[in-house]
């Protein structure tokens, strides 16, 4: 039984500006429906390659269009940076005090493999820090949300109830979570340094959710990611009592001149 009520209002830190959270949940669900429409008709699925050779499907574009339209109506004064619309010059975005950072379909490879482990990621960045994050898994209708001052929750849409999330700091068993499709020897080495005894594999931003809900204690990523891959997850993990930093413990920052991330370590 999940008796917690999801917070209705989010206050942007240091301001009097508030956001109602219900429309944000709804827009993630709407984007998920756009994705599932294509997912359930695999014969129509066409895959193209972007410049970096990462895959792109019609579902990416459909989710992007749905979210951009909804966010523009939800917060007309807050700019949007989306993976499928990321060509905003740094000379413009460096002056943004707030912006939405969106991955309309995280885990396109999982989508193509049809294993269900893909997500919609929406984060609000203040300065260089994620302050609100939402991760929605359309298959199974699983949704996580967390932010500064409200904590982190898993929301159950069928009952409109929520479960408050809290990381579990422990060393035995020490569970690491990692990618299904990306791995590096350096990641295994770091897991050994932390005395990891169990390993879980998960796709997309679901790895952050497993740290936030206490299922795992460590997620180290050696290879590059992009800001929209990590922003929502960082907000959720941080609000659940965990951390996401560079490997040497420095703050993991956003709205950089280059949107590519370096390695990071996410811990309970």
From TrEMBL:
Pfam families reported for this sequence: Inositol_P (PF00459)
Subcellular location: Cell membrane
Record carries keyword Zinc: no
Binding site for Mg(2+) 1: 83, 103, 105-106, 229
Names of required cofactors: Mg(2+)
One GO CC term, this protein: plasma membrane
Binding site for substrate: 83, 105-108, 229
Membrane-crossing segments per the record: none
Known EC number: 3.1.3.7
Residues holding Mg(2+) 2: 103, 106, 229
Membrane topology reported for the UniProt record: Peripheral membrane protein
Record keywords: Cell inner membrane, Cell membrane, Hydrolase, Magnesium, Membrane, Metal-binding
One GO MF term attached to the UniProt entry: magnesium ion binding
GO BP term, pick one: sulfate assimilation
Origin superkingdom: Bacteria
Chief location category: membrane
Catalytic activity: adenosine 3',5'-bisphosphate + H2O = AMP + phosphate
Entry function: Converts adenosine-3',5'-bisphosphate (PAP) to AMP.
UniProt xrefs under HAMAP family: CysQ
Annotated family: Belongs to the inositol monophosphatase superfamily. CysQ family.
Protein name, entry field: 3'(2'),5'-bisphosphate nucleotidase CysQ
């Amino acid at each position: 039984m999940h008796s917690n009520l999801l917070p209705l209002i989010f206050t942007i830190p240091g301001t009097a500006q508030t956001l109602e959270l219900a429309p944000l949940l709804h827009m993630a669900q709407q984007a998920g429906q756009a994705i599932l429409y294509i997912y359930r008709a695999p014969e129509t699925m066409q895959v193209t390659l972007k410049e970096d050779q990462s895959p792109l499907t019609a579902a990416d574009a459909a989710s992007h269009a749905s979210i951009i339209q909804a966010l523009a109506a939800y917060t007309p004064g807050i700019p949007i940076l989306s993976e499928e619309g990321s060509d905003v010059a740094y000379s413009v975005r460096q002056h943004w005090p707030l912006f939405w950072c969106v991955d309309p379909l995280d885990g396109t490879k999982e989508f193509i493999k049809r294993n269900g482990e893909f997500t919609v990621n929406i984060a609000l960045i203040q300065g260089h820090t994620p302050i609100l994050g939402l991760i929605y898994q359309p298959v199974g209708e699983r949704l996580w949300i967390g932010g500064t001052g409200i904590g982190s929750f898993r929301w159950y849409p069928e009952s409109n109830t929520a479960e408050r999330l809290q990381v579990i700091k422990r060393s035995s068993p020490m569970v690491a979570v990692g990618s299904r499709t990306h791995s590096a020897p350096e990641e295994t080495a770091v897991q050994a340094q932390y005395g990891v005894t169990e390993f879980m594999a998960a796709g997309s931003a679901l790895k952050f959710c497993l740290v936030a809900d206490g299922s795992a204690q460590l997620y180290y990523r050696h290879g590059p990611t992009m800001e929209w891959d990590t922003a929502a997850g960082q907000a959720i993990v941080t609000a659940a009592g965990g951390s996401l930093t560079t490997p040497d413990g420095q703050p993991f920052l956003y709205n950089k001149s280059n949107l590519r991330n370096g390695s990071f370590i996410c811990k309970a």
